[in-house]
Amino acid sequence: MEEEITSEFKKMEFSFRKEEEGEVLKKCLTFCINYQLSPSDLASSWEAYYLNRLLGESIIGNAQMDGFLLHLQNEQKEAIIKEEPHLHIYSSNDVDMILSDEHEETKEDILGTPSDRSGRHNSALFDSAQQTKGNSSSYGKPSDHVTPFGKRTSKFVVQLTVNNPPSAENEKNENKLENLDDDVIRRVQPGRRCSLVVHGSRPEAGCRFVYDSIKDRFNALENRIRKHTAALVATGLYEEPTDPTVALPKSVFATGMICCDGEGHLNEKSILLQSSVQHSGGQRVRLDLSKLNQFSIFPGQVVGIEGCNPSGHCLIASKILDSIPVSAPTDRDLPPAKKQAQDEEFQLADSPHNLAELSMMVAAGPFTTTDNLLFEPLTELLAYARRKMPQLLILLGPFIDSEHPEIRKGMLDRSFDEIFNLEILRRLKDHVEYMGSAARVILVPSIRDAHHDFVFPQPAFSIHPLDLRHQIRSLTNPGMFDANEVKVGCCTVDVIKQLSGEMISRNPKDGSSRDRMTAIINHILSQRSFYPLYPPAEGIPLDLSLAPEALEVSTIPDVLILPSDLASFVKVLSFGGRNEGEEQVKCIGVNPGRLAKGEGGGHFVELNFHESPDKSSISVIRI
């Protein structure tokens, strides 16, 4: 049979390396026997493997056999899945989870500050994930080649912590595992299922987009100015705004949106204020901020201005109001009955929670490195989640990144939807099936997702199978939800980076200045908008005809998740309390960074919310 194998390979113009021919033929013979392949079938499979890997040379060596074996295993697995789509095929990942008898794994403490010990310990825990290839894609480099991601040294090391994690409860859980009599099979300890209420569901899947008109955009901006004005007037601290374009020698109060006089970036000489149709017919006036000690503004920001316009051509500001009071009502424009129906439709609570407590892990894509489509970072993140057992795993796109080199080349032999279903959803399905009914996963799409609608705001993914709908859910982008009474908001558009590039500011002369990232988070929440920038940055498919209310931050959340290409950070911010009788609200602003950066690993966030942002512990961890 070895002669037949050699003959079939020669027909396809492949040859064996002379010094390794005997050993390679023995392995090929084993493959034929184990997978019931004829010599011609084996040669055809090798040709597919050769073309997918772009190996370049037609000489077959022993070093390529491991990768070829993986390819054959994936072919067999996919064939079985097509015949029986509901069948779960156990891989070495499942065996590692169930039969791992490394006793020291149960002694891991809650992650604290980085140390040599924790770095070595976590590296040992997850080295097995690098050696496991059962769930790997058939794309990318051969398995005998260790990827740059696999060669990284700093694994699961805490880069930043806010508040020390409350380790007492977790240590008890770890000790329970240590005292199990059965050291062979370790079962996941059942956790408490978190409640989940999703707010709003627009835009809906399958909606028509890129049909917004100038009128739609104008009305959306006009509504923002009117709502902001109404909120300021409702406090009783400010009178009804006047027309800022009219010449008046005395000080007046006006509201409007910051605009740029031209197509370039905003600067102190090009600032305009566009007031509402109600107060000025939508006209613009030049805005002079030279008398202000400090300010921070950007195009699209709605502000209140106290100042005078002696000439009728320039409004000289003496005070700028860049935020809506916390107590101001700004709920979305939905009838109460409809809003309640939407919330109840997605409420997945088992029982009400009186105390706001929630454990979650947050990671943002890309979920695979740029040199392959093996999704190694996602595999290791899920392995870590199995150890830590958070109540909620929040994954933010892109999942199938349109900027990935392999996807941009267009040389894949599967559709984007197939890759998403096999590489993302199948992994998540295996994860929640293993973790049990208490595990919940939330997916948030990105405009960089090649398999999803390129529009913002963006509809949720259509998640199948429906039997896992209560464990794996998708939100709109942006989206808000409550979990165990903890309010969470998230948006995958890189608004932090875009606002940072457009924002101009002046710091006080005494040298005190506010951190730029803190200022950006403050702007987003003060404007009560997930995307307050207008005009939108280049490449953002903003469609204000779909669901402009979807961009509104209806209430200040406890946790605001805004993934960005900029460095990861966690900020605890305070709002309100400036005026007498106004309550102070706090929020945790989180940029988890990217799980994969280039050919290496990035970061994710582990967050344990306890009653309030001040008492919550947050860790930024390198994957």
Secondary-structure blueprint of this entry?
Layout: H1 2-11, E1 15-16, H2 21-34, H3 39-53, E2 59-60, H4 65-83, H5 92-99, H6 116-131, H7 148-151, E3 157-162, H8 167-178, E4 197-199, H9 214-234, E5 248-260, E6 271-274, H10 277-280, E7 284-288, E8 295-297, E9 302-309, E10 314-321, H11 336-345, E11 357-364, H12 376-388, E12 392-396, H13 405-409, H14 416-435, E13 440-444, E14 472-474, E15 479-483, E16 486-490, H15 495-502, E17 504-506, H16 516-526, E18 559-561, E19 569-576, E20 584-591, E21 596-597, E22 600-601, E23 603-610, E24 612-622
Q: How far apart are the termini?
A: 47 Å
Strand residue percentage:
15-25%
In angstroms, what is the radius of gyration? 28 Å
Helix content: 25-40%
The strands making up the biggest β-sheet line up spatially as 3-24-23-11-12-13-14
β-strand number: 24
What structural class do helix, strand and pairing data support? alpha/beta
Q: What is the count of helical runs?
A: 16
Oligomer: single chain
Low-confidence stretches: 98-142, 166-190, 330-353
How would the global form be characterised? Answer: elongated
**Largest beta sheet, briefly?**
7 strands, mixed
pLDDT averaged residue by residue: 81
